[in-house]
Write a structure and sequence with these properties.
It is globular and about 45 Å long. Strands 4-5-6-8-7 form a 5-stranded mixed β-barrel. It has helices spanning 3-10, 86-89, 103-107, 113-117, 187-201; strands at residues 20-26, 46-51, 97-100, 138-150, 156-161, 171-176, 211-227, 250-260. A hairpin with a 5-residue loop joins strand 4 and strand 5. The protein has a domain at 80-199 and 218-260. It contains 5 helices and 8 strands. The longest helix is centred in the C-terminal third of the chain and has 15 residues, at 187-201.
């Protein structure tokens, strides 16, 4: 039995073996030391597992259509290129930050999908759709990054969850957003979060299909809570291997701060 297959069977949060296209051992760029230079200390290494898994509403991809992990990464535009609820997605809630150390504690505070679908005023997917009262919240969450992909609108789509040991296994999505115009007051924090994500992964940024991380990467993220009205009907986001354990279509979106290995 291959090593990756043994690991897939040993813990939750890994992809189906049949979806795996390639693997690479990855040593991330560490946070800067007090003097501003990257730390020379060798820390945790991770496997990046590239797969054919995509969100249920996206077209299926073939192995031949996925870029090899060893290949130079294609240029990634940093500019947000979407329209659905654009005004809300690129706005930061004007609220104090609530802290959570366990993902289910955050999820318990979120209004159910049925209530949000009936929200008055109605939440639309128009570009001008702004944040509603329930979205006027900011959260700080200690969690683990299990998988990520890059969406067509240039957001990095993160699947975050609890440590592998606790049960039940539960995950949620967070978005490292594409950037608004530089004149936007949200530009600086969104750019800082995006730069931190890109610096950590360097030449190993995810593509249109999901990359999984083994072990999952500890993170602390901050951002505004967002109801993904685009998926209020039909299937929500998430890779096939984790989809059944994503109980909400609420997101942390946009991410305003991300710290790896806090």
């Amino acid at each position: 039995m291959a090593q990756s297959d043994r690991r897939t069977r040993r813990r939750a949060g890994l992809p189906a073996q049949k979806s795996v296209v390639a693997e690479i051992v990855f040593t991330p760029a560490r946070r800067a030391s007090a003097g501003g230079a990257p730390s020379p200390v060798v820390g945790q290494t991770y496997r990046i597992i590239r797969t054919t898994e995509v969100d249920p509403y996206e077209p299926r991809v073939t192995r031949a259509g996925i870029a090899p992990l060893a290949a130079p990464a294609a240029p990634v535009s940093d500019v947000f290129d979407g329209t659905a609820r654009k005004a809300a997605k690129l706005a930061i809630a004007a609220a104090k930050t609530e802290s959570f150390s366990d993902l289910p504690d955050l999820i318990k505070t979120l209004p159910p999908k049925t209530a949000m679908k009936k929200h008055k005023p109605k939440i639309t997917v128009e570009a001008t759709s702004t944040r509603v009262k329930e979205e006027n919240r900011n959260a700080r969450l200690r969690a683990f990054l299990y998988a990520a992909s890059r969406e067509k609108d240039n957001d990095f789509h993160l699947i975050v969850g609890r440590a592998p040991a606790p049960t039940p296994h539960v995950y949620m999505t967070a978005e490292v957003s594409g950037l608004p115009p530089q004149s936007s007051k949200s530009f600086a924090p969104l750019k800082s979060a995006r730069d931190a994500f890109k610096q950590f992964f360097a030449g190993h940024l995810p593509g249109p299909s999901y990359d999984f991380y083994d072990p999952p990467i500890p993170i602390e993220i901050e951002g505004s809570l967002f109801f993904d009205m685009s998926h209020a009907s039909g299937e929500g986001p998430g890779p096939q291997s984790l989809h059944k354990d994503i109980p909400t279509i609420w997101e942390i979106h946009p991410v305003t701060s991300i710290v790896f290995e806090p």
